């Protein structure tokens, strides 16, 4: 019975036994054997005083059937006697042929007749029907059973057909032989039933035992993200993938995580690169225009030297955005922050000095006020480079103590490895950004206070508008930077750099280029004095 259950891979079976010593013994042994391959759905004993009606109710009805079991004329008694006689003959033959020192006993001694039983236990021969006759260690004959199938024909008659055999004397692993094509299953589909409590868990899932139920009854739980189960079936636990690996969608294999960074081949990288180069070219074009028309009143009236320096710093601002694109390295991580910090301080310093010059120029027009001699061209250049030197000193200290470095970040997005630059020192990075913000706020405040001064082409108003755009962009940048995942974090930073640079370039220089290129008749001293 156990071999048949193993053959059909049944793991969820019920057991009915007679309520006597034989039944109790069989139930106990069957239960122990079943623990190794499955579970008992139920086990019941039938009382020895059970009525025929109840017994027939439990097994499909036998009343009125004509089966081979009702005919005792073809019993196996004669065949058993035949095997017993031959077994005794083989034992006597072995006894008579025994030589000294070759007996079946421990001391290899010669045997006497009353020890014939020991020879019977060692009998092992093939009879004329080709069947092996032998006994086990307990002296019992090796079991051989015909496996029969009750088959129902079209007339409703039950026929018993032999569909296999169990021969304990056969070769190991070949004891059970079944003819599945000859079997009859009384089910709608006519197929062998699947007797299981729970279907096997497929790869990518794990078994979860149901509380209070047998171990054969379980649920299949999908492995969590980053975990896999690679066994064919019924994994009891999921395995965690290593750091640089992640589970595939089926949770059956660990695959290498996708490495992500903002590259020049990426569509977003191409767009930002195009904007950066466009801003660079535009700054160079404006610088070329101002150099070519450097002797005209518009360029002279707006402090041409500071304008040239401002356009150079804006060009550097556009170029520094390119350092944020591409695979991070030790060099690019340091270069991107240094270029960003210095170029923006140089830009804002020029705007700040231009604002101071506008205010002083208006004050200098009052009688007896000679303030401009204390803030001439040399002082203006010195002020710009002094502000820039402070930022350079911050960068030097930052890079010498705890410089930025590339890292492989897999914490924010589990399925990807984000290549990014770690700032190294939060204090250094904060000082760099804080210094830029401080200069921008001072510049915005001074320009706002001087917005109504009658300076040439309302320079203070242009500066106020440019600083308003600058501050708005970087204030908006902070929450967008924090909430953006992966390469989008760097993209937001680049966009902030480009947006603020374009804001300054267009706000301050677009009105001047308009006069120089499209309204040359207004580019004269009389027109400027009239304003």
TrEMBL record:
The keyword Nuclease does not apply. The chain crosses the membrane at residues 270-294, 306-326, 338-362, 382-402, 423-450, 462-482, 494-517. One of its GO terms (molecular function) is G protein-coupled receptor activity. Keywords: Cell membrane, G-protein coupled receptor, Glycoprotein, Membrane, Receptor, Signal, Transducer, Transmembrane, Transmembrane helix. Pfam families: 7tm_3, ANF_receptor, NCD3G. Gene3D superfamilies: 3.40.50.2300, GPCR, family 3, nine cysteines domain. Residues 268-531 form the G-protein coupled receptors family 3 profile domain. It is found in: Cell membrane. InterPro entries: ANF_lig-bd_rcpt (IPR001828), GPCR_3_9-Cys_dom (IPR011500), GPCR_3_9-Cys_sf (IPR038550), GPCR_3_C (IPR017978), GPCR_3_Ca_sens_rcpt-rel (IPR000068), Peripla_BP_I (IPR028082). Belongs to the G-protein coupled receptor 3 family. This is Extracellular calcium-sensing receptor-like. It comes from Erpetoichthys calabaricus.
């Amino acid at each position: 019975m156990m071999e048949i259950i193993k053959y059909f891979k049944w793991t969820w079976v019920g057991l009915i036994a007679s309520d006597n010593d034989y039944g109790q013994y069989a139930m106990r042994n069957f239960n122990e054997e079943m623990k190794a391959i499955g579970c008992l759905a139920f086990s019941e004993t039938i009382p020895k005083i059970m009525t025929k009606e109840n017994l027939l109710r439990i097994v499909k009805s036998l009343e009125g059937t004509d089966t081979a079991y009702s005919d005792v004329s073809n019993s196996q008694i004669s065949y058993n006697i035949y095997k017993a006689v031959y077994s005794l003959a083989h034992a006597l033959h072995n006894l008579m042929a025994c030589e000294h020192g070759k007996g079946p006993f421990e001391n290899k001694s010669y045997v006497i007749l009353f020890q014939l039983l020991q020879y019977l236990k060692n009998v092992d021969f093939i009879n004329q029907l080709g069947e092996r006759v032998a006994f086990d260690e307990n002296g019992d004959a090796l079991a051989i059973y015909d496996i029969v199938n009750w088959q129902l024909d079209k007339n409703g008659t039950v026929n018993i057909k032999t569909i296999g055999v169990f021969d304990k004397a056969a070769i190991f692993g070949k004891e059970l032989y079944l003819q599945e094509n000859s079997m009859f299953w009384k089910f709608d589909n006519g197929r062998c039933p699947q007797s299981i409590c729970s279907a096997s868990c497929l790869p990518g899932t794990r078994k979860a035992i149901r509380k209070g139920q047998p171990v054969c009854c379980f649920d299949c739980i999908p492995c969590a993200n980053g975990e896999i189960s690679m066994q064919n079936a019924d994994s009891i636990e999921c395995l965690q993938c290593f750091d640089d690996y992640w589970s595939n969608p089926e949770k059956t294999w660990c695959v290498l995580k996708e490495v992500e960074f903002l590259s020049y081949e990426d569509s977003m990288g191409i767009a930002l690169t195009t904007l950066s180069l466009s801003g660079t070219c535009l700054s160079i074009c404006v610088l070329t225009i101002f150099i070519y028309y450097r002797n005209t009143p518009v360029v002279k009236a707006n402090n041409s030297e500071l304008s040239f320096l401002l356009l150079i710093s804006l060009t550097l601002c556009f170029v520094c955005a390119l350092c944020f694109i591409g695979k991070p390295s030790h060099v690019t991580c340091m270069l991107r922050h240094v270029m960003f910090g210095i170029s923006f301080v140089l830009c804002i310093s020029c705007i700040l000095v231009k604002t101071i010059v506008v205010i002083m120029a208006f004050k200098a027009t009052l009688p007896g006020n000679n303030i401009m001699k204390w803030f001439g061209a040399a002082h203006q250049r010195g002020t710009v480079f002094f502000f820039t030197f402070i930022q350079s000193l911050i960068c030097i200290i930052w890079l010498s103590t705890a410089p930025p470095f590339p890292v492989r970040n897999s914490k924010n997005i589990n399925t990807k490895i984000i290549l990014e630059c770690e700032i190294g020192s939060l204090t250094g990075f904060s000082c760099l950004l804080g210094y830029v913000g401080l200069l921008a706020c001072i510049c915005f405040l001074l320009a706002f206070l001087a917005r109504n001064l009658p300076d040439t082409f309302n320079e203070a108003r242009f500066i106020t508008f440019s600083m308003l755009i600058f501050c708005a962009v970087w204030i908006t940048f902070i929450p967008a930077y924090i909430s953006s995942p992966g390469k989008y974090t760097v993209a937001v930073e680049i966009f902030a750099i480009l947006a603020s640079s374009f804001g300054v370039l267009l706000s301050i220089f677009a009105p001047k280029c308009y006069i120089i290129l499209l309204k040359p008749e207004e580019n004269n001293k009389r027109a400027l004095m009239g304003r």
